[in-house]
Amino acid sequence: MAALSGEYWGGAETITFFDSKLIILWGWDPCINFTESVYYLLLAKERGVPIIVIDPRYTWSAQSLATQWIPIRPGTDIVMMEAMADVMFKENTYAHEFVEKWVEPKGLAKWRAYILGEVDGQEKTPEWAAPICGVPAETIRELARFYARTHPTYIRLVWAASRQVYGENVARTYNYLATLGGNLGVQGGVGTGVMGGIAPHIPIPMLDFGAAYPEYMPKNLVEAEEWCRAVLWRDKLDRGEITEAEFKAEIGCPAGEPAPNIKMLFFNWKSPRTFALNYQGANERLEALKRVEFFAYGHWSFANTTTWYADLLFPYTHQFFEGGHGGYEVGPFFHGFNPGIKNFFIYSKKIIDSPGETRHPFWITNQLANRLGIGDKVMPRLNYKEVKEFDAALEQLSREAYEQWAQHPAVTPYNPPAWEEFQKQPIFRIPVKKYKIFFEDKFANDIPL
After folding, report:
1. In angstroms, rounded to a whole number, what is the distance separating the alpha carbons of residues 405 and 381?
2. Element spanning 77, H or E
3. CA distances to 334, 402, 403, 408 from 3, in Å
4. What DSSP assignment string belongs to 131-159?
5. CB 3.0 to 4.6 Å from 442: which of 100, 146, 338, 447, for a disulfide?
6. Mean pLDDT (whole number) for 205-215
């Protein structure tokens, strides 16, 4: 029986732009990344919603979407954010009701003291920030005022801004700034569909590989972002500098599981969380890669900086040309790469044959599973398929998943087309009257976060 997804993640928001009074794109160039958002941003702009782009580069988005472009020195985003927070604290213009109700007061007081200079003697004023970030103090001050008085504001920071040393602090400060404006859990604000836990309007077909769940279920011993600390902090544990409980808490290891002692790493293309040099904490990541005894890496048919450090490299076929093999948000072939409102999915068909020695990552996974003696438990319905048979086998699993999905009670009212007809235009969508907002139910019903 093919699985049906219960929930998945969205990638970018679109419909929420029309409920915003102000849109701030911090380092985000949707004309290059998340191009499906551009049309909706242009519509919002035509309706009078101001769009401010903060980016070191004069990007296509700054040129075609922005009503104002604010150039900033690379790597100084946190400085400008802190200066905006200083203005909102000093002028008492932050969203008091929202903050007092939802923000932990001790943490807020500690951060506020830091911003106002009570911790280190340096208030984070626009005048302090200007020579560092290259944005004039008056521009920072007026943007902070505009942001504080305009609600809701869609303010979005992309991951690129945090892909630097201590980049996690940029992401933290951005979230603090979004919270100060009270722009969480509201239509037109941030967080519409980008986080997990928001169910789609209808299920999505998922392929059945015949995996032996729950008989074969690998345990998660490390939170994805903390794999490098799992490697680097193990020495501290072995030397007795930290307790096992402290080590496991730092890396996200469940209390009832053994503390990992990683000697080998195997990463695949699917998540930038495993990249070495173009994600936050690059120094830690690189040091961890050097410290393990063996590093294997699978990636598309082109190199990135992480491939430089691999002892063994698996050349994967590219998802956009040689057949879908798992959307960034959802499972194979049926991609819910949905801009927030979660009302459609796309079937990713093979376009060209795999060049050279590149292979589908599922085929590589199956080969590795067989060599570990667990091939019949991981994906038995694809086990021992030759390369020339693999594409057809995946196509058959996809058809089976689609046809079973089409019979689901939540789907039949929308009259999904037959498989052959669906192949002519492999997109399925349903109309949506009200889109889902992350945290909206919690805020509305006073449920603790």
Report:
1. 19
2. helix 77-90
3. 12, 10, 12, 11
4. HHH-S-HHHHHHHHHHHHHSSSEEEEE-G
5. 447
6. 82
